[in-house]
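Input sequence (499 aa), recorded before submission:
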Amino acid sequence: MSDREIVSALKYVSRMKPSFMLSELRDYTNEEVSTADVYKVVEPLLDETGLRATPEGEDYRIERLPTPVRLTPGKEELDRVETFFKAPRVSRKLERLIENYVERKTHRQYDDPAVLEKLRQAVQAQKTQYWKEGKARQIDYASGYSVLGYLTYQFPVYFVQFQYLLQDLLKDGLLKDRIKVLDIGTGPGTIPLAIVDFYNRLDKAEATVYTLEKYDENIEAYTILVPEYAGLKGRVKIEKPVKADLMDKPAVPDGIDLMVFSNVLNEIDAPFDAKVDAVAAMASHLAPDGNIVIIEPADKENSTRMRRLVRKLLDKGLGIYSPCAFIWCDKCKADMCWSFEEKADIQPPDLMKKLADTEESYKYLNTDIKFSYAILRKDSLTREKYRVPRKASVMRLSMLKKHVEKRLNVVATVMSGDLGDKKDHVFKICDGTPAGQTYAMLAQHNVKPDNEALIKAKYGDVLHFENVLVRYNKENDSINLLVSKGSIVTSVNAEESEE
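Predicted structure, token format:
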């Protein structure tokens, strides 16, 4: 029985029966073939044909899967998710897997002083490369210690920060009860491990994870860490990582529900426009209602460059779901946009603590979560549905320079955490018009119930500001909107719910 005959029989029987035993396919040939051999042929095809194979003794039950629907977790599931974020950290089980991998690679205890010193050197080498510019900047993971350094220093933060985005996707109803994920530039498996960790708090959600990775050392770490953490009977199916370079536009599965570029585009040594084209090419494999998540570091250079890349992708037909909200149906100047989200610090893993057990501990503790991101889609769905009414008495941010020292009303999206201090609250704001840097400022002594919505706002919330004073900061070429005791700040969503 040829592979083609097996595939043909699988498709025929699955159309006729919603459930059947894999051994039944053997009835469609006179040749002797084992059930195990049949499984080897059909297993790679199960996902694309919408089938599931469940072992039953030496056989498999093949079942037709229902169409995926919106994932709607119950209260207990949501409570488990919220509990994690009260003190986010890498689980002890995963910590130990990483410690074991360090020992496997070094043939020493993970906390051996010599191992820790080499890890410190690897971390410092990566940080040095990261801040270089142009051709001098070459970040790679070709050596074993470069991967071990990443797992010790960068991984814990990236692992947790992606779970924050998964939480947002879940709350916004953008996850299905069964999804296909493609993680591009997966490294040692940061995103797949985060998905496994997050999905372990849910009861029925399933995911199949495909990955691309360029470096052999990363693939080795992935192969050891990810399947072990996912478990043989877990609801996250881990496909074997494919060795490939994004810039070569490799073949990937179609119908991807969640495509992830996590802290990878800034590390690729390629022209800017080539990166845009590569992401656009990958987007062609996205499901009609799928999401692309792009994450980059929060520093000004990488954050701004990411916004420029997203703006180019919008020109190629993609739409942005969040965090940007083009409430005037206009598009901003991406080359001026430095914005990022900030979350609570993570708990440092034991290995990181040991790494930082030195006179210059600050060099090896990496616990703060600040990142820039964008969620893109093929359709026009956006997180923020609000658009400024035609006759609303509010001013576009792009017009504020003409109204310095005047009090007026504006509507804008909060695009940063609190950038101020104990005396002054400062937030970057944007309304999607081609404006320069604009900030809303509220002195602590001016905080009152009518304006405290500003300091309570979350990244991406749209606020209505009434009676704010326009000031121009010549040194930074920025506009500051001073929120005073006579100002009123409200959420536009709260205003709509009251109408």
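Checked by second reader. The chain has three domains: 3-64, 76-298+340-377, 397-498.
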